[in-house]
Amino acid sequence: MSSRLPTNEFAARLDAIRGSLADTTADAALWFDATNIEYLSGFNHVQTERPVALVVTDGRVELVVPRLEFERASEIDRIDRVRSYFDYPHGDPIGTIVETLRELDVTCVAADMDGAPETMGYCGPLLSASVDVVEQSWADRMRWEKTDAELVCIRESVRWANLGHQYLVDYTAVGAHPITVSQRASMDASRAMLDTLGERYAVRTRGVGPVHAGYISGAQTARPHGFTPNERLSEGDVIITGATANVDGYHSELERTMFLGDPTDDDEYYFDLMLEAQEIAIDALGPDVPVDYVDYAVWEYFEEQGVTDLARHHVGHNIGLGAHEPPYIDRGWADHCTDPVTDHTESDADIAPGQVYTIEPGLYTETAGYRHSDTVLVTESGTETLTYFPRDIESNTIPV
User: Fold this and answer.
1) 344 confidence band (pLDDT: 50, 70, 90)
2) So what CATH class is 5-141?
3) Whole-angstrom distance, CA of residue 304 vs CA of residue 298
4) How far is CA 107 from the centre of its chain?
5) What is the pTM of this model?
6) Does domain 146-396 correspond to CATH entry 3.90.980.10?
């Protein structure tokens, strides 16, 4: 199984962008968003106060970066030219971008936003102060459906996330600290992944391994985005795990509700409701199904069971280069698509083959939370659940 996107994947993406560009009056397309820049060019970076811009014309691909990124960006063959400014605020990022556009004879640009995002304190002029700008979201929309090459990376992510998750289970015990268990599981799974893939692994991290596996425990599980508590594990703790692996930028998501020792009657009750809700969601998912229908199906079940007050979030979201990507499995998705601000079409309200979703309905009481998350691919004929760690309560009970 491959752990790196083939070069022709980027060529196909750029061809699609140029096709969209040809249908406009713009002379070039431009992106400030780091994820979309990575998607189209293969240049990955952390979005900071130093803007990066990718410019695509009918015959050129050019990149503007801060000086500290120049060497890395210059290693990418598909980028025809890399220009740099020294830094921010001493340098002039927007001025350098405008100069690049002028040298390419661009008078109108189709951009993902009118100026660089105000990240980490950046504050700069609008692009439209110097050139005509029309806004576009072409790359964002292209990312919804995954190609076969992208799916290979996501499947590889699932493989290593599962290993990291198994290490979590193996290292969990009464008296252990959840932070050190998470670190150990992440490190050992990352080591196994790097040893196995060797040079095939595409470096995407700085100072940490490619696998992340961890959990929250005890009362923190009652909060969907709770913190890892600074308390050692005790018998009877509820644990909500999370595991993923970075494979050439692509991710999967695996989460389980687990119990350290025998679950209580309340634990079993809410676990069963959560598991049934997840099964309802997976069964409802499929090609040409309205995205919001899946969330409605789960909500109807929660209403029947009288537990809507324990729900805190929608059913799930698309996943790929971003940990959270649209479409979102939410009862408001159809209204979102018909809002002219979003630039979506009516067909975007329906699920399509190639989309990859996390399915993660949850219930949260005053004392504990209950949530599984699985990564599910939509196929031409139905769905395929890519994550495979067991979901039943017996398999998710850790003996003491």
Assistant:
1) confident
2) alpha beta
3) 10
4) 34
5) 0.96
6) no
